[in-house]
Design brief:
The complex is a heterodimer. Chain A is of the alpha/beta class. Chain A has 9 helices and 8 strands. Chain B is of the alpha+beta class. The chains are: A alpha/beta, B alpha+beta. Chains A and B meet through strand 7 and strand 8 of A and helix 5 and helix 6 of B.
Chain lengths: 275, 216
Amino acid sequence: MLDAETSTRSWASMLRISKSQIQTYLICPRKFWFQYFPVTGATPEFTPASLPFGAALHAAIATFYRSVKETGAKPGLASVTHEFEVEWEKEVSGRRVSFQGNTSIDSHLVLGRALLQKFYEEVHPRNVEGVEYPFAVTLPNPNTGDPLDVSLVGVIDLIESDDEGNLIIAELKTSSKRYAESQGENQLDGMIYVYAKDQLGFRTTSAETLIRYDVLVKTKSPAFQQIYFNKTPQDFGRLARWIQEVLQAIERESFFPNFGWTCHNCQFRSRCWSM
Amino acid sequence: MNREILERPFASDQIKQRHGMNGDVLDYIEGCAVIQRLNECFDAEWIFEIQEHHVYDDEVVVLGKLTAQGVAKSQFGKSRITRGKKDNAIISLGDDLKAAATDCLKKCATLFGVGLHLYFDAPQIGASLNGHTNGNGNSPAAHGHADAKGPEVNGLPAGRLTAKQLSAIFALAKVRGWSNKQVRDFSQEMFAKLPDFLNKKEASAVIQHLQGGHDA
């Protein structure tokens, strides 16, 4: 049903902005500058543990869904957990990983296993159509409707379909606390994925597109949360204006710092705070 | 008035099915079968009048009155405006109004008891949803095709609700100001399942409940 519309390799030839870049800019424009402008010469001072941990969980869950896609059934939990352990080791080796509080490589291993078990017990996939599905779509100028020069690129974690072939997008999140309703409603990535899906010609109904967030909650007692939101073409207008304004700010080289709670775990903190 | 003839269930070959806007599977009776039933009962001595009609952006709505043996029943009927795929232009408002009139006739006839059994055959959510009865008289009966005893798919019975149904549940819930948690709690309370794991029939019942305006 889904043909690969693009590949991450083909992105190299386009003028593009990714979901992660937009998100980084929205968190802190100066962090965006350090991270994406080599001219700054800034290198990350450390890697917050949450990044490799999230990457390892993503890899394990992608393996899980690929197996479902190939065989039509869940693989064994042990193979999913093993994938996580291998990826976690790869992700942390040779990097200066910063762990918060009493956490460590080993405590993350335990947490990862527990989260995957929770995920495994509670998830019942439909037909898996795409896993880590890359897309590149045009963005409209919100005022004129004409396409902007910049393509929007990203990777959708999971695309499932029901027995009638209607698609559902799912996005995996790892979070230190449960997702609040407003958090899911206004998530940039959800809006972007639904917009991309719409551009690729798919909607859940004639007017709305459903997105599901699968949230692995890293609380003391690990939890798995699934929340759903519908997006409409009105949301796409809002998204286009949002992205265009970010692009305009980047063009104006507006890279001001956003001092706040995110500084605590920022990889460029020392450099930034010494400016 | 011969209620026995009016309310006599239609034969299975007269009951058609279509997909509703919310992904439900809906049973319906064609207009000609309803006319046949009215003729049979009233010996063709019945009057149907369109009293008002309105053309909105996306649909046409008519108010009609069906009179027989001195008894009159009024109802609304509607039809979506059909537009060309290429230019989005209206194809024929006349045809849309005719469709709305047929819908209206069927709704009026339902008030006389014609096709009423479809509503009673629908999922009896009235029994479980705070005492509310199923169907509000304005829509065809919804039927799931799930067979809970069917084969399992990834640990769930076959016949799982469709993406459209799931989308409709959360869209309707949002209109009513329900959070995800409220939808989950409602689904758990009614069927001891999370919304994504309902079967089609159960999902139809939840959708009908959300459409019906009852509070959680």
